[in-house]
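In this section we walk through a basic example: taking a raw amino acid sequence and producing a predicted 3D structure, encoded as discrete structure tokens. The instruction is simple. Fold the sequence below.
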Amino acid sequence: MNENVRKKSADLGDSADFTDSVDSLRGLDTADSTNRQDSTNQLDSKQDSINCPDSTDSKTSHNSTDSHTDSKRDSTNSHTTHKNLAKTSAPDLLFLAILRRFYKENKFGVLFAFIIYLLGTFSLILANFNYIDDIDRSIFGTFGFNVWDRYTASLLSGILRLNADFLLNIFPYSLFISIFLLSFASIVLLNVVDWRLRKSKIAILASTGLGLSPYYLECLSYKFDSPFMALGVLASIFPFLFIRHKKIFFIISVFCILIMLTSYQSSSGIYLMLVLFLSFRSLIGGGQIGKAKNIFIYGFLSYFVAGLIFLLAIYTPIQTYANNEMLPLKYLFIGFYKHINQYINVIYGDFNATYLSLVVGLGVIFVAKSVWESKIVSPHFKNLDSKIPANLNPASSIAKRFSQKIPILFLSIIILFALFIASFGLYLLLVLPHYYPRSLIGFGAFVSILAIYSISFKTKILKICSIIIILGFTQYNLTFANAYGEVLNDHNAYQRFRFTLLFNDLGKFLDNSQLNDFKYFNIRISGNAGDSSSVALLKEHYPLMERLVPVVQNSWSWSYTALLQYGVYALEDRDCVVYENSARAANKIELLSNTYFHKIERFKIDREFKNGEMRNEKTCYVTTYKDLSLRPILFKENYLAITRKIRIIKALVVI
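The resulting token sequence is shown next.
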């Protein structure tokens, strides 16, 4: 081997030492790499060396002689593969080799995950619901992504629709793209957390919590935005396929983090969680602090560099319904505390006891597995047994082992809490973060990481418990997702019904002569139409539904946009708002309609000379929706009360 090859081999060896304890790219067979000589086959041999084979996982049934032979052959093949890898160490070839191997090994996983996602989102397709921003974009075809520095989303949206001027509605094709990206992201996450589970259907189910989390359903509800939200999730996970190669990992991380920050920033915590998790796992897996330190340093350095580029070259502070201004340094810790406290309260209020119990169960298994399977023993606890009196010294090896790993117990709890905090992402740094469901998608990734990690527990009882919990999560996610799609369908029908009733009455009084200078009717919307009976009852039992299902028949600004779908161009006129109270006091408001569902009023502002100009006469309308949501709930309570009385009366008659 010449001097250049030796240098390359040394570099690659240093790269291979980066994360030997990270199992995301290990365990692939290298036996066939000995005789590969052409460039195409060298890519495979190169990837084989990346994946650090471990023959004992798949050949436990061999006798000791066979195991010894396999070990020798693996050692020989590893050396030969390392030589071949040195010959093909170009970054572009390495990048392609890793992707090619990933494709070959995970085709089934991506397909299986796609089917699960399709089952969860099928009801969303049937609902065909225009979710908030979709109303405006479906009418005007405006992009509007650049307001939030989402330049990648704006660029790719134009490319996807082959039109940079009009945002075409391509639903459900856009949803299929979203779930494909999520399927790919889920399997990448599975390989990163534990590559040995890539063929496990239970593990794949656990990984789908990434995109079927109840919080992520709001992202999937957007017809126009959903592909770029999914892209942000994938960009946060994808770099970890290359974590064994420091330079490539750093470059791809910076690039992908910038994609995430310019597509959808709510997934900003996923990358941080994986850096913390892999650093922790590398530490307890073999006690190799240097390797854990490398993962931590390169991960956070990549995040810092990408964040700095975004902050200096892209970031634009704005203040609308959400404030993206960052916390001043002097209020950083106070802001952190308040945001974390609010984050916990929101999650606690959104889910029932069953779901939260499953999350706590996964957390307990995470700590138990970390302590039980850790290879680190604190030097302060090594001689603990000798200091215990003979009559108190436990005979159980479990007690001895646990007594030596008390520091790992505390470290595991700290890391678990750190992962939870990191799931909130960069919102921790904002002055006024918002807590919409779409902003909390990192929580689904947090649960998925815990779920995948728990499956590989060597203790059979706890492994069975983790499988039961994962099946429970999957059932909950699929049930909730399909119920949510059905709720949107019912809510859509109910909104159309209320709009039809309103326009039947309002249309009798509207006239083109009443249009203002901007060709809009002066209409103020008040009240709240609420929900249909089925939706109202469901929201009572699932609090998160209240935040997921948008009501656009109230005083919200989107209520005026919703009227545009029916050809009614309306805005709340400032003069009408100012004069309304005086008109009511003077009894000059005319009641046009007062039904069971709504009330319509009208008043006029006379022509006047104001601020140096003549103001034309204005006709102002006030429409007030009546909320019928509580009636089915009250009816249910009254019905149950009456039913109980009838049962008591029947029982007394029988006696």
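Looking at the output, two observations stand out. The radius of gyration is 30 Å. Residues 460-506 form the longest helix (47 residues). In the next section we compare this with other chains.
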